[in-house]
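Memo to structure team: turn this sequence into structure tokens by end of day. - J.P.
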Amino acid sequence: MKTTKHTPGPWAVDLTPSAINVDSDMGGICQVFGADNPDDETIPNARLIAAAPDLLSACRMALGDITQTVNYDEGDPQTLATVAAIEAAIAQATGEE
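Reply from structure team:
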């Protein structure tokens, strides 16, 4: 498994009257635009960003479980597609595309 290069989780959304921040125990991660006039996507976008470390970890766990417990080399199209999607998500998150 690759070494994590991002700020370790957990990350959390911090809503203030003037900003929507995503923070970690080590400090700020980012500020989401739209705090002054949030729409239906602004806070959910911040929550998705805050979930990123947990989502990456879950993808890595799922990939390990699938490749160790399921004989996916037998050509099951759904399992192959799932493995490919998880691998692509991990590559995108880690910059290894």
